[in-house]
Amino acid sequence: MTSLSEIMSYNQAFVEEKKYEEFATTKFPNKRIVILTCMDTRLIELLPKAMNLKNGDAKIIKSAGAIITHPFGGLMRSILVAVYELQADEVYVIGHHDCGMSSIDTSHVVDSMIERGIDPAIFKTLEYSGIDMEAWLHGFSDVTESVKKSVDAIKNHPLIPEDVNVHGLVIDPANGKLDVIENGYDVVEKA
What we know:
alpha/beta; Beta-carbonic Anhydrase, Chain A; five-stranded mixed beta sheet; 5 strands; about 40% helix; about 15% strand
């Protein structure tokens, strides 16, 4: 059985048995927060539980390493939509210890692409077009500094209003312990 057929089979029973009813909520986050975190599989259930969040409490945006790589990319667009259209007034950037982005070998990723059929000439075209694969795929060496950098990118974005609190945290994927790296309330109080 393929993963798609397994999912579809389960989904049919899920809908028929009305298991969705316990998750009913609106599109607006009850706790008025948006979270940018890593796509790490260990965080799927752990992070919301560690933060006492239930379905409907927060907008959760996931990406590799919770890294803002471009000020006008999809991650910032999602954060801005959450703030301006979906009533979020706080942003949490949550990185985690033992993140794969802290040890990513970009040359290995490129080699894997080639092994899976990507024409090596593509990389010359990308380089010619100004795309630096090393920089684009690069992660970070220190999760605390990475979180601070993403917090700074959000906090200082020209379209983020000053009254939006932007927090930075790091979670331990082994036990769910959260450490505050940047307290967004401190910044707003000092302003």
